Amino acid sequence: MKKNKRKLSKYGLGTTQNIPNPSEIIAESHLTADKAVAEAKTNPAILALQTAGNLAMQYGTANGGMGTVKGLEKFGGMLDGIMTTTGMASFAKGGKASGKIEVEGEEVVQTPNGEAVKVKGPKHEDGGVKLDVPPGTDVYSDRLEVGGESMADRKLKRDRRVKKLMKKLDTKDKILTDSAKRELSELEMEDRRDMALQGIARSLDQLNTVGENYDENQFKLGTGDALAMAGTLYSSLSPMLSTMNQRKNDTLNPNYFEDFGKEGIRTLENQQEYIEGQKAITEKRIDQARVDTAERNRQMSRGVNQMRAGDLAAQSSSNKALEDTYTNYSQMMMSNLGALSQAQMTRDNAVMQGEAQADMANRADTDAYHTAMSTAQSNLGTGIQQMGKNLNQSKLNKAQLSMTNAMLKQYGVRIDEDGQVVKLEDKDN
Fold first, then answer.
1. For residue 59, which of 233, 170, 237, 211 has the smallest C-alpha distance?
2. 137 and 98 Cβ atoms separated by less than 8 Å
3. Whole-number pLDDT of residue 400
4. Centroid of chain to Cα 175
5. Which residues contact 264 (CB under 8 A, 6 or more apart)?
6. What is the reported pLDDT for 335?
7. What percent of the chain is helix, strand and coil (3-state, nearest 5)?
8. H or E element: which one contains 398?
């Protein structure tokens, strides 16, 4: 019976892959985690909901609690409508939308899979433009401005820049490609900030709506009060958003000595190949000289003994030449190996120093991020407290306005919410 022989696999020894530096792996893990946190915390929907929650708590405190189930229901409706609104909702302040909505001319609408398009048509006051959009649609307001530029214009400007940067990603220039990627990331973060600010503006509008519908606690923000709260929110959130944006764009600090000495080591290794080649050439020349010398001696020999003596002399001369060649070869190789060993030791020291410096820089970046985040969170807490003071002050302003109007009633005038003195109408008497 014929036995089947097992086929033995061949295994290579060693590997050309380097073991990753543990400190680099740890730093990369920290950076990835921080980027994930930044991605989540800069989400416009999350920011808007957090803002609405803070507004709800501050509003409840300012008014001695929500008071009634009716009030809770209205605030619940506000939370549902902060970022994603269904029904025929007006989007004067922009935000995320789905279903049937009303936009206006000069606003910009972007569907999840489409380009941003500027709306043409009447304003909200004149009936607006009715649309039915899929979930995840973004609306950019032409009324809200940052630095004198509307959210709609900022969006169109970003999109034009993105198109130019996308072309640079196809180039083989790594520096140009990396620069384009960084700028694209910054533009994405700017878009998130704009959406978050629109969500804050919508939440303030919703708060006004809740105040208007309270029977027990009439509480409506005036223009100045709303601007004060919006400014407090913006100044409180901006440091945190900027810090997380910077962290999101962070990269691991490289070891700038990673390639130190490689060229010198490569040159020394090439010298070894050159020395080997010269030795082989010399061996061939010596052997050829031995053959030529022996041939000449045989032609000049008069007998066998003289011929043998000539062969021995040629071989002896060849052996002496080979001995000198090997001696020189050994000396040159020893010198080369000594220089190579020194170069490798110098390179190892430089690479280790570079690793230590990169590790320290990565740790410093992490510490700086958490320090900045701690400060930003403190600023946010202070801002939320200031929002509460603003709400209380707004309530006080309304109470004082009511008292003042009660005293002015006998003179037939009153002060409206814009601070203007107007005549009393019959329905006010």
1. 211
2. yes
3. 77
4. 17
5. 343, 347
6. 92
7. 65, 10, 25
8. helix 304-408
Tell me the sheet residues that pair with 149.
Answer: 146
The token duo for 410 is 């006998």
pLDDT of 400-417, one tens digit each? 778 877 877 777 778 776
Alpha-carbon dihedral sign for residues 18, 24, 30, 33? negative
Q: Which residues pair with 130 in a beta bridge?
A: 102
DSSP designation for 3: P
Question: For residue 70, what are its two tokens?
Answer: 């009716």
Residues 6+ apart with CB under 8 A from 215: 70
Q: Give the burial class of 124: count Cβ atoms within 10 A of its Cβ; 0-12 exposed, 13-18 middle, 19 or more buried.
A: middle
Nearest one of 136, 239, 135, 225 to 193, comparing CA atoms? 239
For residue 332, give the nearest of 276, 282, 281, 286 by alpha carbon.
Answer: 276
At residue 41, what is the residue type?
K
Cα distance between residue 320 and residue 101, in whole Å: 101
pLDDT at 331: 92
Residues 6+ apart with CB under 8 A from 184: 162, 165, 166
Contact between residue 125 and residue 92 where contact means Cβ atoms under 8 Å apart: no
Structural element, H or E, at residue 185: helix 174-212
Asked if 24 and 359 touch (Cβ cutoff 8 Å), the reply is yes
pLDDT, block means (10 residues), the chain with 429 residues: 49 46 65 62 54 53 45 45 46 77 90 86 89 89 84 91 87 82 83 78 60 46 58 67 70 84 90 91 92 88 85 89 92 92 91 88 82 76 72 74 78 75 67
Longest alpha-carbon distance in the chain: 156
d(CA 4, CA 26): 51
Question: How many degrees, rounded to 5, is the angle at CA 58 between CA 56 and CA 62?
Answer: 115
Side-chain half-sphere CA neighbours of 237 within 13 A: 24
> Which DSSP letter does residue 84 get?
E
Distance CA 144, CA 142 (A): 6
**pTM of the full structure:** 0.43
Query: How many angstroms separate the CA atoms of 99 and 114, rounded?
Result: 16
pLDDT for 210 equals 47
Instruction: Give the 3-state secondary structure of residue 102.
Output: strand
Helices (H) and strands (E) counted in the chain, each on its own, are 8, 10
Q: How far is CA 42 from the centre of its chain?
A: 11
Residue 315 to residue 310: CA distance in whole angstroms: 9
What letter would DSSP give residue 17?
P
Report CA-CA distances (Å) from 359 to 248, 287, 354, 362. Answer: 19, 59, 8, 5
